[in-house]
Amino acid sequence: MGGILCKNGVLFWKALSVDLNDPTFKSDMDLVECGSGKIHESIDKLPSSQQDLKTHSKDAQRSELSTFNSSIGVLLSCLGCVIGTGNIWRFPRIIATASYSQGSLTFLIAWAMSLFVWSLPLSIVEYTLGRFTRTSPLGAFHRFLGNKLVWLGGWIVAVTYMITAYFSVIVGWCLYYFYKSCALSSLPRDVETSIKIFNEFAQESYWPALTHTLAVVIVGGCIFGGIKWIEKANMVLVPMLLGILIFTFGWSLTRKYSEVGITFLFTPYWGSMFTPSLWVAAASQNAFDTGAAMALFISYSSYFSRKNGAVRLGTMIPLCNNMVR
Predict the structure, then answer these.
(1) Rounded to whole angstroms, how far apart are CA atoms 204 and 199?
(2) How many other C-beta atoms can be found within 10 angstroms of the C-beta atom of residue 203?
(3) Is 199 annotated as a binding residue?
(4) Distance in angstroms (rounded) separating the CA atoms of residues 241 and 253
(5) For 160-169, what is each residue's pLDDT tens digit?
(6) Is the pTM of this model over 0.90?
(7) 35 annotated as ligand-binding
(8) pLDDT (tens digit, 9 = 90+) per residue, 140-162?
(9) d(Cα 177, Cα 5) in Å, to the nearest integer?
C-alpha cells in the first residue's frame, strides 16, 4: 500500500504497511523533486504493483517539458500531417474514377457526409486519447483497453508504417520534380513528354534511391530534433504548401476548358447516390484526407499543452483540411 503527498513543491511517496527491512525501500518516506526532472532512485525500485507512480511521474515531466510552443504551431503541424499529395494528386483521381460521366456532385455529397459521420468522430477520439494519456498509440490503447486489446494500437501503427513506406517514395518523386522544374528552361506541354521524364527518372536507378534517401533524411532529422524541430519545420513548410495550393487553384481556373471541369464538379447524378462503390471511395478518400484512424494525432496531441483543446482541434483540423480541397 502507498500514498502520495505533494507539499511545497516536493512530492513524497509514503509507504504504508510496508516492512521497513525490505531492501526495496530505503526509508518509510521517499522523496521526489517535483518539476526538476530528477526522480529519486528509490522509485525505480518500487514493486511492480506500484509502477504506475513511476509512469505517471515521467508523463508529468514530459507534459511540462515537451509541448508545442504556440497554438499556430499546433495548427500548422497537424495540418502538415494531412495536407499533401492527397489534395493535389489522389483526390482529383478518385473523384474522376468514382464519379459517373453525368457529374460528380453526388460523390462530393457522400465525401462530405463521410467527414461528419466517420472522420470527425475518429479524429476527436484520437486527439482526446493523446491529450489525456500523453503517451504513444500503444500506451494509449493499453491504458484504455488493457493488455488484451493493446495489439489494436500496434496494428494501427503497423498499417501507418506501411503507408509511410510508400509515401516517402512519393515525397522523393516530388523532390525530383522540384529539381527538374528548376533545371528545365520550360515545363513540358504535352503528356508524352511528361511520361518520358518520369520513365527516365524511374529507369535511372540512382535517382529514385537518392531522392528517397534525401526525403527520409530530412524527415528523420526533424524527428530526431523532437517536437520543437517538427513545429519549426511545419511553421515554414506548411504555409509554403498552402501558397502553392492557392496558386495552383487560381492558375487552373485560367486554363482552357476550366469551366467544363467546374460544371462537371457541381453537376449531380442522383442515380449514383446509392451505389456502394461510390460511398466506399468517398469514405476511404475522406479518411485519407484527414488522417483519421492512423494514430498520427494520438502522438501529436500527447505534446499538447493545457490550452490546446482536443475536441476543438479535432474538429477544426479535418474541416480546414477539407476546405483546402
Answers:
(1) 9
(2) 9
(3) no
(4) 19
(5) 999 888 889 9
(6) no
(7) no
(8) 999 988 898 999 999 999 999 99
(9) 60
